Amino acid sequence: MKEKETGKIRTTQNSHARTQATARNKRTPAGTRASARVVHTRVRGKKKRRKTVMMRRIVLALLILGIGAGGSLLVWNLMPQTKVIRHLEAASEYIETREYEEAIASCEEALQIDSMSVKAYRAMAGVYQNQEDWESAEQVLYRGWETTQDEGLLQEYCVQVLNDAVADINEDNCSFDTLEKCIAAIETDPDNVDGYRLLDACYARLLGEEQTELFCGAFGSGEEGGCSFERYLAVMERMLSVYAEHPSEELKTEILQFALPRSQSISLELSHMTDYQALLGEISLLDENGSLTGLSACLDKAVWAQSAFADAFAIFESGEFEPIKDFMQSETYLSIRDQFIEGSMEYWDGKTYIPVSREKIQLTCEEGQWRFAFADFEDYPQTGGVIKIWGAKQEDAGVQRICISYEPASENGEYYPHTTYEFVYLYSNVKLGQENYVPQMNYRFETRVLTPEGMTSQLIGDWGGEHEWDMEY
Questions:
Q1: pLDDT category, 41, cuts 50, 70, 90?
Q2: Where do the structural domains in the chain lie, given as residue ranges?
Q3: Chain center to CA of 389
Q4: In this predicted model, what pLDDT tens digit does every residue of 437-448 receive, in sequence order?
């Protein structure tokens, strides 16, 4: 029984198990579908979330990209080179409408942003060239080269400068400005062959003519202005400076040429004579052939003559004429007089009455021989006074006369009335008593005043002697 019960139990148990298994088997498809739905829902949720995240990322990326692009555009617009380009484009537009001042201002603004912009310098030079303002164009190109050291700007500058010089020469308008343009080109390019050719042309026109006023107004012109010696000296010093850094035979030839004018007559102010001497002394170091020796010696003689008569000028200007007697009898004065009488005076030109003044000399060259002469009243009416040496042979009882005269500066700049003080040591009659005249050496002092109406004269015989007498006529 127990066994049956047990069996039943077993059977019951087995049946229940089968029932449960069957039930499970029956439930499986429905459970699987439910589980699949849950899984699908979860997958869809994940995909949606992923999509949302992706979309957010895409939007964020686009936003970042947009901001980046806008920032890049902003940065591009703020870059210095971009600003320079915009200013130069504006300058180009201004040129088309001939608004040149605005065009120059735009170029200047570009250079304030970038001082090394070669395009900006070239553009500004072009604006000036459009206005035919060649000098300003040259200055801009040179300024650009100095700042950037760009060889292209240097070449454009040289071409511009030399073209201007050529135009001056071709138009027969060669001046000191033309000469300075040639020097400027050689300073920037010491090997510029065209520069040396144009220097030759300038020399022929400025110092190769029969008479030049390069140094100062010619004798007889009566002109106080027009002196170019200071500019001449500056140009020569510039050439010497270039030669010191870049020695060349071409430049040495030009320096020697300009130091020795080919003109037959040159006016030189005495205030410049020392500087001219110093210049020739410096250039003589390059003068292998001694071509400057004659001119240097001539200037040395002129300086010596000025010094020899310094005391005489001081006596005459003091108004106390008595000391002039000692000067007339001095060894220096007598030697000068005798050399003129004998015709043996070197470098100093003069015949009968030889002037000595302190403003100008005339340099002349004949057959390679240089000589000088001081300006007289007729040569330079503005003179402060003229001393004259009597260089004619005239003897009294075998004694050579000694004569010197002085003409003071004109009153109020007018030639008339023109006064001459003449002092002569000669053998002549001296009045003793009322009617007794005795010939003997004595000094005579005469004052002559010339007016448009004629001349009046006051004569003092035996001047300073014990038998002094005077007369007027």
A1: low
A2: 207-387
A3: 43
A4: 778 889 999 999
